[in-house]
Design brief:
Layout lengths: L1 H6 L14 H7 L5 H7 L4 E12 L2 H4 L9 E11 L2 E11 L18 H6 L4 E3 L3 E5 L4 H10 L8 E10 L2 E9 L2 H13 L1
Antiparallel strand pairs: 1-2, 2-3, 3-7, 4-6, 5-6, 6-7
Amino acid sequence: MVGVHLRLGKWHRKLAAVGTDAAMRDWLATRGSLTARLVAASGTFRVRRLHQKAAPCSFEEAAPIGLARRERVWEREVMLCCDGVPVVFGHTVVPMSATASDWPLFSALGERSLGTTLFHDPRVVRGPLEFARLRGSHPLLARARAALGGNLDGHVFHARRCVYRRHQGLLMVTEVFLPAVVKLAAATTKNTT
């Protein structure tokens, strides 16, 4: 069990607790739709769906989405790409108890952005953002590494997560910011000055 706890993220409500530079802090603190910001910062934006299936949730996901213990959930993973470059790995979990009326479009998203749906539905209530600095052994980094087909060692990874509520249904989105997002931030800054 000790090994499991070493792989978990330490989530904080205050962004300052994860210690990051100004460029990454700016991306992590995005209050509106991250998708909208990525679209605005790139010539072409694409959601590449990796999978959407039933899977066991992680230990650190159970309590925030109202589960008493680790259970199976609906899981969706995507790579958000700007100008062909992956910049954010997205991981979403929904309890199996959620109904189609709670999240009517979740099962039919395909390669569309979940963020677009969440931010345009007035019945969706967004909870507070939480932030973490993820170690290389974190399960989400292993999944991102596998999706990218490459080595992500030598980088510090920052992530944020948020629980959304619609009717009685809960849904948690975790976004892992990949190294290329900082280059995108630098390009965006140059284009606006």
